[in-house]
């Protein structure tokens, strides 16, 4: 399959032949075609970029489906993953909104376990055991 450069080179040859033949109408048509080729090349790049973004969205959604299989729901708006060896806690709000895993910080406040997500500022006390 030809590339935009191949088409451009053909048009360049056509323009040169038109100049040799002193055919201004053919030169003008070759320039118009060349302008359209540049427009098509630009449109093609835009479509490639959009395709790349859409592929990333598809990959993220497929990854989210796989992660959802491993979610251990809890009473609080946090969760753990059954395949996470570190037993980290993740923010339920961020997961539901963005389908991204954000670890929450866990700590004790007045001798009670507490969590905070620094992405969405979700925080609260928990009954979960903090390691």
Structural notes for this entry:
A hairpin with an 8-residue loop joins strand 2 and strand 3. The longest helix is centred in the middle third of the chain and has 45 residues. Helix 1 packs antiparallel against helix 2. Helices cover 53% and strands 17% of the residues. By secondary structure, the protein is of the alpha+beta class. The strands form two sheets. Strands 1-2-3 form a three-stranded antiparallel sheet. It has a three-stranded antiparallel sheet with strand order 4-5-6, with no helix packed on it.
Tell me the Rg in angstroms: 29 Å
Low-confidence stretches: none
Number of separate helices: 3
Give the helix proportion (percent range): 40-55%
**Distance separating the two termini:** 60 Å
The assembly state of the depicted protein chains is single chain
What order do the strands of the largest sheet run in, or round the barrel if closed? 1-2-3
Mean pLDDT: 87
Return the structural class: alpha+beta
Largest sheet descriptor: 3 strands, antiparallel
Strand content: 15-25%
Number of strands: 6
**Helix-strand pattern, N to C?**
HHEEEHEEE
Q: Based on CA inertia axes, which overall geometry fits? A: rod-shaped
